[in-house]
Amino acid sequence: MSKILITGGCGFVGSNLIRQIVEQGRDSRIVVLDNETMGSPRDLPDIDLDYHKGDICDPAAVSRAVSGCDTIIHLAANTRVIESIEDPTLNFEVNVRGTFNILMAARDAGVSRVVMASTGGAILGDVEPPVHEGMVPQPAAPYGASKLAAEGYGSAFSASYGMQVTALRFSNVYGPRSYRKGSAVAHFFKQALDGKPITVYGDGSQVRDFVFVADLCRGILQAIDANVSGAFQLGSGKPTTINELLTEMKKVVGTGRWPDVNFADWRAGEVRRTYCDITKARTGFGFEPATPLSQGLEATWQWFLSQVGDTAKK
Ligand code: UDP
After folding, report:
1. Rounded to an integer, what distance in angstroms lies between the CA atom of residue 71 and that of residue 6?
2. To which protein family does this belong (predicted)?
């Protein structure tokens, strides 16, 4: 039986991924290392797993969790772009040193495969989309730099120590279990639930690539099964402006409950337009993000409503 360590397993992507592993009936023992900043094992009540509360910045905790595993899915990270501009040191410690700790422990324990969450837009900076793996990285914020450094160490450990390292460059992931996320879809739904206004930074023309979490998790598992290495973009492959996103979200929430939308100044350091070309993931391991935005938003809103015990949709 395979033994898979998932760092950040209590978080948004991790908790969805663990459910998908269980639903697929995979012959895998799941180990989780999580510091509980973005979730808790209470969010995975029905799942049989080996749980380690601990931080990826603590090499001893990492070694304990890695012991006996053949595969690591490294999701734990500090993911906020604007916060990384305000506090680049914390971002560095978690994303660079934390990933380095994971790779060292993997090397020392003879782990054969590490799959790590990375990012497309933030690594590449303000370039003309669609972004793809062949582009020269030019991060515009410390977050992108930290992920680029992590990918660099992954590549070096792969070449130097014979382990297989794959960097999956996630686009903007949304879906159920994102309650603790500050990202656009989660934040806008929470504002709608609370009856508070939404603030759009800029005029809403900024473009992102919104991928449904179940599609993304299928991609992660496909990448593992296909034994690929290197970097791959995982997104919907489709551009959506924030204004278009808000129009779709309003349809799902209903006009009666839809809050006011205010427009504020652009935030410094933000990428204006990014979406990705997913050809490499499609041909490399059959990645197919099939969920339309409207359907994914509906599933996400229903989950948010279920969290507040509210079944009245509109
Ligand atoms: N955004 C916004 N208001 C919010 C949250 C996000 O206008 O309350 C915008 C944000 O400025 C960005 C886009 O939505 O242009 C996506 O933001 P998110 O933080 O989800 O992802 P990222 O900027 O890291 O791609």
Report:
1. 9
2. Belongs to the NAD(P)-dependent epimerase/dehydratase family.
Within the chain, strands assigned E span 2-7, 28-34, 50-53, 71-74, 113-119, 164-170, 172-174, 198-201, 207-208, 210-212, 230-234, 240-241, 261-264
> What's the pLDDT band for 249 if we cut at 50, 70, 90?
very high
Establish whether residue 33 lines the binding site of ligand 1, counting it when its CB lies within 6 angstroms of any ligand atom: no
Give the CA distances from residue 109 to residues 31, 72, 157, 158, 262, in Å, rounded to whole numbers and listed in that order.
Answer: 15, 11, 13, 14, 52
Q: Report d(CA 238, CA 257) in Å as an integer.
A: 28
Which domains can be identified in the chain, with CATH numbers?
Answer: 2-176+210-235+276-289 (3.40.50.720)
Our measurement of the distance from residue 191's CA atom to the centroid of its chain's CA atoms, rounded to an integer in Å, reads: 21
The label of the residue with tokens 């906020």 reads 80
Tokens of 76: 């734990």
Mean pLDDT over 257-282 rounds to 94
With H, G, I as helix, E, B as strand and everything else as coil, classify residue 118.
strand
With 0-12 / 13-18 / 19 or more C-beta atoms within 10 angstroms meaning exposed / middle / buried, residue 160 is: exposed
Nearest CA to ligand 1 atom 14: 184
Tokens encoding 240: 């959506």
Distance from the alpha carbon of residue 147 to the mean position of ligand 1, in angstroms: 19
pLDDT for res 309: 73
Tens of pLDDT along 140-157? 899 999 999 999 999 999
Q: Looking at ligand 1, which residue's alpha carbon is closest to its atom 15?
A: 206
Q: d(Cα 18, Cα 240) in Å, to the nearest integer?
A: 28
